[in-house]
């Protein structure tokens, strides 16, 4: 029988496998290993450092840590695609989106 954190971590991996969550929400780096609990997005380690610098907007947590069921539920209800629709609706089409290969 799996304990609750183990079950939550398995559910988190299922959420991560959904289309759109397989790359960093900010730069597109494949296989993100962090998440913003306040924004509900998955990000890479490099972008997580930027999110850490704005703790009043984004609180990050590594995917390797133990996750509570409520945290997994938040990530399940949001995700990278939903966040883009919400937060980037007024971004002009000519705006340059940084990539993981940028310095």
Q: What brief labels describe this structure?
A:
single chain, 103 residues, mainly alpha, three-stranded antiparallel sheet, 3 strands, 37% helix, 9% strand
Summarize this, please?
The protein has 103 residues and is mainly alpha-helical. Helix content is 37%, strand content 9%.
Describe what this molecule looks like in 3D.
This protein is mainly α and 103 residues long. It is 37% helix and 9% strand. It has four helices and three strands. A three-stranded antiparallel sheet has the order 2-1-3. A hairpin with a 4-residue loop joins strand 1 and strand 2 (41-43). The termini are far apart. The mean pLDDT is 90.
Number of helices: 4
State mean pLDDT (0 to 100 scale): 90
**Topology as H/E string?**
HEEHEHH
Biggest β-sheet: count, sense, barrel? 3 strands, antiparallel
The N- and C-terminal alpha carbons lie at a distance of 46 Å
Low-confidence stretches: none
Number of strands: 3
SSE layout:
Blueprint: H1 4-16, E1 34-36, E2 41-43, H2 45-52, E3 60-62, H3 69-77, H4 80-87
Antiparallel strand pairs: 1-2, 1-3
């Amino acid at each position: 029988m799996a304990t609750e954190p183990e079950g939550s971590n398995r559910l988190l991996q299922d959420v991560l496998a959904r289309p759109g969550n397989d790359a960093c929400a900010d730069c597109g780096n494949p296989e993100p290993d962090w998440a913003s609990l306040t924004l509900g997005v998955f990000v890479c380690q490099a972008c997580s450092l930027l999110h850490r610098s704005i703790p009043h907007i984004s609180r990050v947590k590594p995917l390797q840590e133990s996750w509570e069921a409520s945290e997994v539920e938040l990530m399940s209800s949001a995700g990278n695609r939903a966040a883009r629709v919400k937060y980037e609706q007024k971004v002009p089409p000519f705006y340059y989106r940084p990539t993981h290969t940028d310095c």
